[in-house]
Amino acid sequence: MKTNYNQLIIIPTYNAKEGIIKLISEILIKAPYAKIIVVDDNSPDRTATLVKNKFNSNPRVSIIIRENKGGRGSAVIEGFKMGLKDKKIKLFIEMDADLVHNPNDLQRLIDKSRKYDVVVASRYLLKSQILKWSLKRKTLSRLANLWIKFMLGISLTDNTGGFRCYRRKVLENINLNSISSKGFIVLTEIAYQIHKKGFNFGEIPIDFKPVDVNRSNLNIRELKEAFYTILRLYTISTFGKGKIK
């Protein structure tokens, strides 16, 4: 019997060989109606080769290899664009490659998408847990999310979490080509566009457990980019000046 694969899971990767095979293997079981696109930024650790060798014969797994390191946000957008070419895909899910996002939570995301246009796996709901992070890091992350919510009015407790499910109509009605920011703040810029289009958001609680608490994808350049992106979007939202580039 032919399976109707109407979900697409996009996994951006860069030096993700430690967990990527386990992650994909679990997704194939936990999400039986999903296809997977790995978008790899030419990882020096040969993540792409590992994925191709393991899943080359599996029609549910495909891989895009980009020549340069373009960042998580642009990798996900590239996956969206590829997935939108397949009219059978109705749900688009993004998640990280390092097992920080649990495949066991996929079905809850999918189930909640029956009522909401976008569903975010939030680290900041009452039933959520953030494990291993220091109090300082938890506080800074929480304050950043509260600031984003206050500045842009997006009805999310977690504006920077990268485990999300979008209905097809959402991605068809926002301008993916206009996303100009880099790094993690792309998540906020996408959410801002969705918010301005009038789509609704739902959230589910998760246990967030970083694999390596000493490794961070953030750097000073990305933090500056995030700060100026929020100010730019706030200016557009409040004064109607400028544009979403």
Keywords:
single chain, 245 residues, alpha/beta, Spore Coat Polysaccharide Biosynthesis Protein SpsA, Chain A, seven-stranded mixed sheet, two-stranded parallel ribbon, 8 helices, 17% strand, disordered C terminus
Describe the structure.
There is one protein chain. By secondary structure, this protein is an alpha/beta fold. It has one domain (7-239): Spore Coat Polysaccharide Biosynthesis Protein SpsA, Chain A. It has helices spanning 20-30, 47-55, 72-84, 106-112, 135-152, 168-172, 186-196, 220-239, and strands at 7-13, 34-40, 61-65, 91-94, 118-122, 129-130, 164-167, 201-205, 207-208. The termini are far apart. α2 (47-55) links the parallel β2 (34-40) and β3. Strands 3-2-1-4-7-5-8 form a 7-stranded mixed beta sheet, with helices on both faces. Strands 6-9 form a two-stranded parallel ribbon. The radius of gyration is 17 Å and the shape is globular. Residues 213-218 and 241-245 have low confidence and may be disordered.
Helix content: 25-40%
**Quick one: overall form?**
globular
How many distinct folded domains?
Answer: 1
Helical segment count: 8
Q: Just give the CATH class.
A: Alpha Beta
Overall pLDDT level: 89
Record field, number of beta strands: 9
Largest sheet: 7 strands, mixed
Q: What would you give as the CATH superfamily?
A: Spore Coat Polysaccharide Biosynthesis Protein SpsA, Chain A
- Spans of at least 5 consecutive residues whose pLDDT stays below 50 are 213-218, 241-245
Question: What is the H/E order?
Answer: EHEHEHEHEEHEHHEEH
Structural class: alpha/beta
Largest beta sheet: what is the strand line-up? 3-2-1-4-7-5-8
Strand content: 15-25%
CA radius of gyration is 17 Å
Looking at the overall shape, the CATH architecture is Alpha-Beta Complex
Within the CATH hierarchy, at the fold level, what is the topology? Spore Coat Polysaccharide Biosynthesis Protein SpsA, Chain A
Roughly how many Å apart are the termini? 45 Å
